[in-house]
Design brief:
By secondary structure, the chain is mostly helical. The protein is built from 14 helices and nine strands. β6 and β7 form a beta hairpin.
Length: about 475
């Protein structure tokens, strides 16, 4: 089966539900702010409805303060602007210069980037020096992220994960926006002998290698090469630079599909398409030239080859998601999880977060919903009737998933629970997710990334329903 897409959904029809999302959201943000102690670490996910920390890597604090800024954007309540602005200024500097992670897009674009966008849109009063401060943070963040670089056998490279220089994570395609924003601001990475390294080109190389090594296209790459499947991690020999094998940290296995990784790919490639389409043709041709783009029919220029490669990765993952989710748009945490067979024809019905065998992952759905909406927007300008039809289908898929997320049992309406989006999963293989008494699998808990991405996708559609400027991949510069 597949997602039951509702072709009649519109932003106006969803607006009341999205207003309710932000009504619930306000209490969650204020509750966390009241109870959270910085000495305890960064809030990551809930246990029994209360946010806790988990030391693995610092990748969620930007979601904490970024959520407050999204709340302000949606409601105009200045309490949340001040909370998000103060948290960014006081707590996020170390994330700007953090050389040990692949998560700069999550942490810094969600905070400094949002503040700069709000200032550029005229939503907040910001002095020239304040804007300069946000811009400097974004420039440095993009360059620091780009410096975390592994060069491979064909001369291209990728931003390696916190696992080390051998490791390319599918997640990082959404952090490439840190490089893109810094490039938009006119910044470059300075290397040895004052080499000027293009952040745009590095972003393209990372996207190219993610598309080649973390996304499958049904071309016989291995026994499990199903079109649209993704691998969480691609492993390289750091001496020769040769690709060795797929791997997984948070999925069930290298040859199954961890659905949050699938959603990161869908959202990240769609977001990059949205950005790259705005660049002058000569600028993108120059940055994309001499890269080993796949041979794609009708791609006559480097720009066309680049866009076609990113479009292909976005659409193939989108189609795989649609075919491997429950009818309401919520996926299981992994498409190859070992007990899925016990659920029978689970793809033919709505998701059941309280089933006894395998958890769902609502955070994957929140990320994917945004990906579908961005992909639909990126494809809508095509002159091809077939592509325009696909664009409408992807857009309605995003709206349909958002409708599910904005209502029970996924929207957290109880004030005592600090999470906004219920039934999120963090790290199933490591056993980090709380299993409540009487349950057999994790459910009923929330994550910072799930809550943030529900707020972000809800804001995208709420702004559209209100006739406000589109929520786009840009600092507004």
């Amino acid at each position: 089966m597949a997602l039951h897409i509702d072709p009649s959904l519109t932003p106006a029809r969803l607006a009341p539900s999205l207003e309710r999302v932000f009504e619930c959201s306000a209490d969650k943000i204020l509750s966390l702010e009241k109870s959270w102690r910085p000495a305890q670490g960064t809030p990551v996910f809930t246990i029994r409805g209360r946010y806790t920390s988990r030391g693995w890597t610092e990748w969620t604090q930007g979601f904490q303060f970024g959520s407050a800024l999204l709340q302000f954007d949606a409601t105009g309540d200045r309490r949340f602007l001040e909370l998000g602005r103060r948290g960014t200024v006081e707590r996020m500097a170390s994330h700007v210069s953090h050389v040990g992670v692949h998560d700069h897009g999550f942490n810094n674009v969600s905070t400094y980037g949002t503040l700069l966008r709000l200032a550029t849109e005229g939503r907040i009063d910001a002095s020239e020096s304040e804007r300069d401060f946000y811009q400097l943070a974004l420039k440095v963040s993009g360059a620091v992220q780009a410096a975390r670089w592994t060069r491979i056998a064909d001369g291209t490279g990728f931003i390696h994960s916190f696992n080390g220089p051998h490791s390319l994570f599918v997640d990082t395609i959404r952090s490439v926006r840190a490089l893109a924003v810094a490039h938009q601001l006119g910044h470059v990475l300075m290397g040895e002998q004052d080499a000027r390294i293009s952040l745009l080109r590095r972003g393209l190389e990372h996207g190219l290698n993610t598309a080649r090594h973390n996304v499958y296209y049904g071309e016989g790459r291995d026994t499990y090469d199903v079109p649209g499947r993704t691998a969480h991690e691609a492993i390289f020999n750091t001496v020769s630079g040769v690709f060795r094998c797929p791997s997984s940290q948070q999925g069930y296995a290298p040859f199954t599909t961890w659905t949050r990784g699938l959603a990161w790919a869908l959202c990240g490639f769609a977001e990059q398409l949205e950005h790259l389409e705005t660049l002058p043709t000569a600028e993108l041709n120059d940055a994309a030239s001499h890269l080993p783009w796949p041979s794609i029919p009708k791609a006559a220029t480097p720009r066309e080859a680049c866009l076609a490669t990113f479009r292909r990765a976005a659409t193939v993952t989108a189609d795989f998601y649609l075919e491997n989710t429950c009818t309401d748009g919520i996926p299981m945490w992994d498409t190859g999880a070992p007990n899925l067979h016990r659920l029978g024809r689970y793809l033919d019905k709505a998701s059941d977060p309280e089933n006894a065998w395998e958890p769902v992952d609502s955070s994957a759905a929140a990320i994917a919903a945004q990906g579908f909406l961005r992909l639909g927007r990126a494809l809508a300008a095509s002159q091809s009737a077939k592509t325009q039809s696909a664009a409408r289908r992807y857009r309605q898929a995003g709206l349909t998933i958002l409708r599910t997320l904005a209502s029970e049992p996924y929207l957290s309406t109880q004030s005592r629970h600090q999470g906004l989006l219920l039934h999120s999963v963090y790290h199933r293989p490591n056993g980090w997710d709380h299993i409540a008494t009487g349950q057999k699998v994790p459910n009923g808990e929330s994550s910072m990334w799930g809550d943030y991405h529900l707020r972000e996708v809800a804001l995208m559609i709420l702004r559209e329903a209100r006739g406000e400027p589109p929520f786009r991949f840009s600092t507004g510069t």
